């Protein structure tokens, strides 16, 4: 589970068969059911784990309660429980892991400083882990997302050296290379590493998405679309639905921004997948990607989702606040060709973009959209300002092409 490698389900099932009273095996299996959006199974197995934990050690009881809180959609309880648990049992890596990553509890908390929070808790407990392969992976990832790119890359490379069969380290290293603009190296690394990675592993499709980003940056739209069709589109993929949906919608949107045509059948597939797995507002990272797909397919689905988001905001249940709603409205305006309205909505929302969670690479999509809206609306100077700051941070043929387009405006 900690290396994002296929086989965790079978391993937990074997452990349960060996000892049906082993609470930690049950709660681990429940967590995998949850990641695969098998909510009923997840809650049932978590309830069984809680009953079994009554006779377990204090550490095990606490572990089970924290993981059950995650499964039962009680994130605030899970966060406070995890932080207290780690003060007493800092090497409980599974509990630490739920706070970290692009889809962890900190990232989806709605707080704007979640990148700093992830790094802080890693550094707080670093002395207990040393050169542990999993911890070095996530310490590197956390440094990268906090903007410490050289440190993040060095740690991610060290983690790969400690355990090559570690998709989380490969993922972290891919992000470091992306943030540094080292796209060709990132593509070469993944092309050499991925063949040994079981395609059923839950990060495999997302790592293919990273390959597609490098092709997009190089202007190879057909290559990026081929990656989508082979590895990402929702056609019986064995990956968590949140990964499939957000990777698919975001890659198609990036392709559309770059001028790729003929995407309509793919948009319909992704929109239908979103309707199936995320039929109601609630998972806000899915909701903002739902806007991408439904804005491109038309109909009333986006209006319905926006009304649901407004209701959640009114009840204080929309963790990123109104920024999530404005991002969705801005995407709708952009898709409809109203670039002035898209700019009006996206400009202030971008300032709070971090609150939707995910990684820098995932969130960059909305900044990309604002750049293209500026160019199409004749505000080349505004587009150039954003592009210049990006190019100061890293090289990018795609950004250089947008810079030339902005100059013509």
UniProtKB/TrEMBL annotation:
PANTHER family documented for this protein: TETRATRICOPEPTIDE REPEAT PROTEIN 38
| UniProt organism field | Bradyrhizobium lablabi
Q: What family does the entry list?
A: Belongs to the TTC38 family.
Q: For this UniProt entry, which residues form the secretion signal?
A: none
Q: What is this protein called?
A: Tetratricopeptide repeat protein 38
Query: Keyword annotations for this protein?
Result: Repeat, TPR repeat
